[in-house]
Amino acid sequence: MPPRKINLVEAADQKIAKVFDPHIAGDVNDAQAKVAKFGEVFDWHAHDHEDEAFLVLRGRIAIDFRDGPVELGEGDFIVVPRGVEHRPRSLTVEPVVLMFEPATTLNTGNAQSDLTVTDLKRL
Fold it and tell me: For this UniProt entry, which segments traverse the membrane (predicted)?
């Protein structure tokens, strides 16, 4: 049987009910591709030991850094190096974002809050 194909935007619309609730799209070696809808503003945080990559699939987002924001639209990609404090936020209603990171990466990194997700669902 061939691997299963997923349309990430359609799957996000069907299965992700709330913002900042990452879902696993697939496993790639020791990393995961995760999809989330972004909301108004996330927690400031850093990942002390992991880089984190973002690819905007639909809508627009900003990733705030302490020295200024970077805005991303559909098709834009950015890598946030390990240890760099950042805060993602939406610029449009519920943008859909694909994230690449080690499977052990916690969405809120070194911060704990109501937005921390420890039990990820799969698309």
Answer: none
